[in-house]
Structures are given as structure tokens and as C-alpha cells.
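From the pipeline queue, job 12 of 40. The input is one protein chain; the requested action is below.

Action: predict structure.
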Amino acid sequence: MGMTATRTSLPNVTLPDQSGDLRSLSELAGEDPLVLQTFRGHWCPKEQRFFRRLVALQDELEVGYARLVSLSVDPPAVNAAYRDGLGARWTFLCDEERRVQRELALRETTDTYHDPYVPRVFVLFPDLTVVSEYDGYWFWGRPTLDDLVRDLREATRRLRPDFAAPTA
């Protein structure tokens, strides 16, 4: 699996999504593995490049029974516009008040103007137990699509007793 997790689980936070509707992480995960990505903002070229990877993966996530959620300090209208411009279909959560950012200790301390999240990617079980965690402060710390698929495969294998095809 991916990078060793430094946390054992994440709290079940509730925040507004890109439409302003309150959503919790457990609701968004349902019974499936969840990829939670915190990001600086739409203005960051590293984020833009990484989002293009995630958009390329969204069809596979949907048919593979996995979920993706992105989280930033941007307001719903900004996240909605960014999401639409990317062609993303997954949920973007909005932490304008930076409550969850403080709770998770994921404040990007080198950018005092935007006060954004540190880029981080978590692969989670539906109960929000951490499978893997990637520190994306430097671009190369972010997971590749192969990393995410490997982590999701292992999480699904552990969640689904019927992962291997039944035999006669």
C-alpha cells in the first residue's frame, strides 16, 4: 500500500459542499473506500496538474465502488466553478472557517495570504480508518494513479469478502 499512515483515522467532519449543502465524510464514503484530498486552491499550478490526474481516474473510481472528495478553504461558489471547469463529478467540501484545517493540523504555513490546506491525500476505509496518507507539499509526494489504484485495491480486498470471483 501507499505511504505509511501517520494517523489511524480521521474525524467524521461535516462541511458544506460546492452547492452549500452540509455533507459528512461518512455519508460521502457510504460503504466504499474513500480518497480524501486536501488542496491549496484553484490558483495553484501544482493543484491544477494533480486534479487533471484525478479527473482521469474518476470513471474508474465510479465503476470500482470508490469515492473521491476534495477539501479546501475556498467558498462553495469558488469550488463549484473550479469543479465544473475541471469536469469533475465528485464532491468538493468547503472549510472557509478553517475549523477542520485546524482540527487536522493541515495548515499550509508558508502561504500566509491564502492560508490554505497543506496538500494531503488520504485513502480511507468507510469507517474513516486511514489506509494510506500522502504528503503532497512537494509535488512528488503526491500519489500517482497507480498508487491510488493499488491502495484502493487493497482496501476493497479487505472490505469485500467476495473480492475473488466465486467458483463452482
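Job complete. The two ends are 31 Å apart (CA to CA).
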